[in-house]
């Protein structure tokens, strides 16, 4: 327990500030990278596959560290673990800022994934270290900081690129980690777990896990690459699933596993994980596609694009806090989830069917619908997923949830990047994808980039429909 664990208001404020600072790191960084994806690709002369590969390495490293999270905390304590993670994240930021090609940039993203993966989990679990009467305040700060970091990211990204190009968004990581380290010093738990109670696992098995995750991400990417042999993709996917299943089976049999799957094997929790994956997949689509549409298709300046994006994400913060207030009195999870999916689907439909817009104002209703929908869907998922877990497996449950979050985001960014590139540059090879999306899109109108963007939103809408049906019929989240 940190030295400042007293429950008085004067001692609570620095802990809440540290909580906000630690939680926001990854969301600011991810938001800036998604917002500036086109500029990064142009600056480094990356293909869509190159950018997706670098994002896959980030996701693989993050998942590796999320699995190792509890192991590290048991031996280092939260404060030293967070400080070490900040140092690794800063080193990755430096590599990305100085990169001139794929190798150095990918190595930097890998280090950012290793360092950045811990912050979200550390922030959430720090709430459990607070006095019981302060935990709701901690939860509000946690929600506001992660969504507020996402809302700040586009405006911060545009401002930094105006000062120093795309490299500035990664150079910002150095002062960022120094400020966060200063705010968090002395505010996180320092206790370590006795050796006889620590989880156990050989590093070789974690490398096995990394390889399985990488193969799975590679298979997902390859589905959108023109010319990828379907047999090779399916074999890669099956091999990766087999590797991950072997790792999970080994963990299941251990007395002190890294992840206590036996304690997490509950229908409510498993259903919540599936909804988490889809929710973060939708976040990835919105975070990548809306800036491309506003800047790349409409030709808005980066600053104007950032203002629209940040205002929409600020609405996300307000909607999330509204949901928290309403759900405490009326916990109608299924209704909120269906409302969120309907709102997101409406935004996708408006964007998929639009003609070439004359200004950003015409896109505002659809953009706001998508941004406001996300907390309305994910809020009930967050409330419902963990309600049945015992305290002894809560941290394990949150680790797995963040692994699923990272899989959803990295899969979404990789798949959407490659899908957009394929639909724009190789429409003849898109076949079934174009046929499905063509339900909404006028193929004779607009630029290739506009048509490809419309098709991506149309396909996203089609993906929402079966999930909405599942949410409507399920009886787990009422």
TrEMBL record:
It is a multi-pass membrane protein. Keywords: Cell membrane, Membrane, Transmembrane, Transmembrane helix, Transport. The keyword Cell membrane applies. Residues 15-478 form the Major facilitator superfamily (MFS) profile domain. Its main location: membrane. Pfam families: MFS_1. The chain crosses the membrane at residues 52-69, 81-104, 139-160, 166-184, 205-224, 230-249, 270-294, 300-324, 336-356, 368-391, 403-423, 456-477. PROSITE patterns: MFS (PS50850). It is found in: Cell membrane. InterPro entries: MFS, MFS_dom, MFS_trans_sf. PANTHER family: BLR6921 PROTEIN, MAJOR FACILITATOR SUPERFAMILY MULTIDRUG TRANSPORTER MFSC. This is MFS transporter. It comes from Uliginosibacterium aquaticum. The lineage of its organism: Bacteria, Pseudomonadati, Pseudomonadota, Betaproteobacteria, Rhodocyclales.
